[in-house]
Amino acid sequence: MRYATLFATCLTLPTAIAAQDLHDVSIALDWTLNSNHVGLIVAEERGLYDDAGLDVEILPYSDTASSALLASGAADFAYMTSLGFMTARATGADITALWVTMQHETGRLVYQSDNAEIARPADLEGKTYAGFGSAWEDALISTMIETDGGTPDYDTVTLGTGAYEALATGRVDFTLEVATWEGVNSELLGREQSSFAYADYGIPDQQNGYIGSRTDYLAENPDVVARFLSATQDGYEWAADHPEEAADILIGAGDFPNAELVRGSMQAIVEGGYLDAADQPVGGIDGDRLAAMARFLFDSGVLTGPGGETLEWPGDVSDWYDQGWMDE
């Protein structure tokens, strides 16, 4: 694997690799390396990209959003959150989703199980939320409370990743987490917590973890795109079938303080059926669910223009994704 910073890249390749005349491609990550990216790492470490004639450079996470790096041409592909992709696309970025990792929403609203004042989302009225500073959070939480018959009147303190410790120590009443990561970590720490699934209270059950590219790159490199995504698909399929071995491969490629968190996360992903879906191949995008989440984000005012102006629903977002590579 070629590792690089955003400001410098290796100027030479090892002779053995150069001799293979591999096609260079790069992908920017949405966050620090974690189990969502496992298929990329498996494909690299098991030689699947080499077999596809590709030398894949996985750009490390930075303060610049992966969607912005993609749109600017700093990367050929980007791994993006659903919100990150849809925000960029809605505001004019000429990028297209080609793949999605998680077939169902992995996020959930979480609270301490011993909090006798919370039994349903409507009970969150008047409580304190530990948040992360995005408009999406308020739209999500408010919709869940209102769908359950409550009034979305709650206090917010922005704590970032400190939210989880604040919840565990009782300084706040609830927060949001990814079940396959923070949820697993809480279990490893012995924390007794309960949760509400977004989809049970008015939020579309979204897919997440999009890989996309620019429209011009797709037009100019259809064969490269197909080879990259097919090898990536093979990587994720192998990870789904071999979660323990995939976790070890990911651990070997990253810097994880707690290896058991990675192993537990992979197990949660596989047992939860997040990579596999009865009606979709691994990586398959469900156009109806993409449209449902996009409509929710437009209607709730989460997606805004560069000046903060409200965006109009375009009526059709079928051109936001393209999975023609599956037919290559």
TrEMBL record:
The keyword Signal applies. SUPFAM superfamilies: Periplasmic binding protein-like II. GO terms for molecular function: metal ion binding; transferase activity. The keyword tRNA-binding does not apply. GO terms for biological process: thiamine biosynthetic process. Keywords: Iron, Metal-binding, Pyridoxal phosphate, Signal, Thiamine biosynthesis, Transferase. Residues 34-246 form the SsuA/THI5-like domain. Pfam families: NMT1. It catalyses: N(6)-(pyridoxal phosphate)-L-lysyl-[4-amino-5-hydroxymethyl-2-methylpyrimidine phosphate synthase] + L-histidyl-[4-amino-5-hydroxymethyl-2-methylpyrimidine phosphate synthase] + 2 Fe(3+) + 4 H2O = L-lysyl-[4-amino-5-hydroxymethyl-2-methylpyrimidine phosphate synthase] + (2S)-2-amino-5-hydroxy-4-oxopentanoyl-[4-amino-5-hydroxymethyl-2-methylpyrimidine phosphate synthase] + 4-amino-2-methyl-5-(phosphooxymethyl)pyrimidine + 3-oxopropanoate + 2 Fe(2+) + 2 H(+). Residues 1-18 form the signal peptide. InterPro entries: NMT1/THI5 (IPR027939), SsuA/THI5 (IPR015168). Pathway: Cofactor biosynthesis; thiamine diphosphate biosynthesis. It comes from the Bacteria. Belongs to the NMT1/THI5 family. Homodimer. Responsible for the formation of the pyrimidine heterocycle in the thiamine biosynthesis pathway. Catalyzes the formation of hydroxymethylpyrimidine phosphate (HMP-P) from histidine and pyridoxal phosphate (PLP). The protein uses PLP and the active site histidine to form HMP-P, generating an inactive enzyme. The enzyme can only undergo a single turnover, which suggests it is a suicide enzyme. This is Thiamine pyrimidine synthase. It comes from Pelagovum pacificum.
